[in-house]
């Protein structure tokens, strides 16, 4: 992991894009202010090829590719996608097949039978902390279909940070935090991320709060998003993956929404961005 160099990663990414093993292309950015909540739409035409729900088929050109293990619904189109092993081999660090950033990362469990509706565990957080050492990367996890996941094989994603609305979430000003249209639970580590066990303990406490908001028991799957950036963690309870045709994963809930076309932006605007976000999550009392 320490041997990974930014230039080498970018060179590999660009090569795989040129060969068609990674789907990535130019995008247009549209920014909106939703009553104090910053929202960015990144229109990425390349995302028209991406499956958006679990079970959806991939582009025909990938169907013959090797899967990421016997229990996986992820495809490894090229062995060069795999950059390193994380946490002594519990996860593969890989380039994302459908990228909105240059580059975009994934950390997939090497146990290909692990599932995306499972909460994060110690091994996942150890891998996440290694991903955070990459330049300007924040980590997201979409736990379950209602949280915006499109593949069942358990994986985290690494994106270029920060998320558009991050400062609102971690603000010490209650009025500022009240601009978020939905309920969320967060924690900032004064000295930065430290021991993995401490991070796991904080996450479990935040997840307990998310379960209570959603009325979920300890044995039930709890759809939620997790975001890690710099010295903070945010957990967002989720009620739905989409409102009409307006959808969002963890990054979208944090104000960084990737869409395939202008029509998707128009749908968000028609429905009302704050309304969509509050329905995807649990409405903030001030919304």
TrEMBL record:
Every Ap4A phosphorylase 1/2 N-terminal domain range: 77-158
Coiled coil region boundaries: none
GO biological process terms, semicolon-separated: nucleotide metabolic process
Extent of the signal sequence: none
Gene Ontology MF terms: ATP binding; ATP:ADP adenylyltransferase activity
A Pfam family reported for this protein in Swiss-Prot or TrEMBL: Ap4A_phos_N
Annotated ranges, domain ATP adenylyltransferase C-terminal: 179-283
Domain of life: Eukaryota
Cross-referenced InterPro entries: Ap4A_phos1/2 (IPR009163), Ap4A_phos1/2-like (IPR043171), Ap4A_phos1/2_N (IPR045759), ATP_adenylylTrfase_C (IPR019200), HIT-like_sf (IPR036265)
Listed name of the protein: Uncharacterized protein
Organism of derivation: Massariosphaeria phaeospora
